[in-house]
Amino acid sequence: MPQPRRTFLSDLGMGFTGLTLGAMLAQDGRLRADQPAAENGANPDTTPDKPAGAPPGGYHHPPRAKSVIWIFLSGGYSHVETFDPKPALNEHAGKTFDKTPFENPVDSPLHKKRFRSVPAEEINVRDVYPTIYPMQVGWSKRGEAGIEMTDWWPHLAGQVDELCFVRNLWTTDNDHAAENQIHTGRHRLDEQQPSIGAWAHYGLGSLNENLPKFTVLGGPTRSDTRLSIDSLYLGPQHAGVPIALDPANPLPFGQRHPSQSERQQQEEFELIHQLNSLTAVTYPEDQELLARIRAYELAFRMQSTVPEAIDFADETEATRKLYGIDEAATDVAGRRLLAARRQIERGVRFVQVFPSAYGVWDSHQKLKENHTKLCASVDLPVAGLIADMKQRGLLEDTVVVFCTEFGRTPGLELRGGGTDGRDHHPNGFTIWMAGAGLKQGFVHGETDELGYNALGEGHYVTDLHATVLHLLGLDNRRLEIPGRKRLDIDHGRVIEEILA
To answer: What are the structural domains, with CATH classification, of the chain?
Structure first.
């Protein structure tokens, strides 16, 4: 039996109630930050010195970007076989850490500071395999900037001078709950926090009232990774909205029943709106009720705008080829990334893309075989996205983030008689960014000679969050909810060194 629309629209998973509440509160002048509208610019959309599409609630500071495409590769790609090649692994292959001329990275205070295993330390074997495993692919310097990348990224290498690498990211969870941690900033043993996409949604107004502000393509596919797009105490209105790449049915339960005409549905929504409005007079402070009133309106409009946003009928054959669409290896990632570009063009603030399936980068065994295939599945589509956005001028006001949950161990994984894989490695790994407000062809930070520890202070994952929000015109430390005091590490710090 079809789910009732009233139930559907208030359902936390789809979050239609919330899709409109964010826009509604911004229109009503409520700010997500602690700065009053008079200081922040009450309505930047109508103020000459504010960029077009600025949120009515205002910014904390002038933004460099309007939107974000956040690309996440689930499972943990190997940093040393992608964007942080380490020739010392080949030179000392087969030796244990203590037999090299370098400091044993396991004995480093950096390891002890950042290591937080759920199992007791005395029984944990992860992340400390001491026998060095050589790189499984060649590498060379790419682009005018001479940035080292491995040979598994021939297409992305052609765009390297657009990219900004951060090679000293670190996190603390050495298991796959790190997929949530890269998005929320919290270890699974701690109280959870809203995701980065939810904070962006919470902080900014809408650029298109007919579309969600925070959409998700390709994931998350498991209930235990829902936190990576969740909004928790910010309210369901700020959670990510999964979009299916089927123009005929992009939103489950979001289409009009075949037996009902568009006019009939519109009249039904109008009646519900009138009844809810009468109740709103009695309960003017009921935000959930006010959200529901707007939600029906948005749901009606989305039935036409969302399908159009993911319909590639008007894309040229050259563009489809650029993304690798209709090619077996690259079709899935290509379609998701092209859909992300189309949504950004239409005013979606934050698009979170899972270009490959859950956990597939988790190469405990057969790393060479797995990474050869997986890199080939995303290399062309991601390079195509950068090239396409550049030629359309979209990189001038969009931030692209390419990340994973952790790297992989410099040592050979030995569990189960392993001979050709690497385990999880949160102590140091690489991500890259591109677009508005970022240096181009730039590398920031480093890991040690073996790719084990992020050197110096490094950057905990919330530094990435703070940087993205800063580029959007938001100060992460001022995005606070009464009664919900966040820890200092939750806020992170802006990575000033990579800003243009």
So the answer is: 63-245+310-498 (3.40.720)
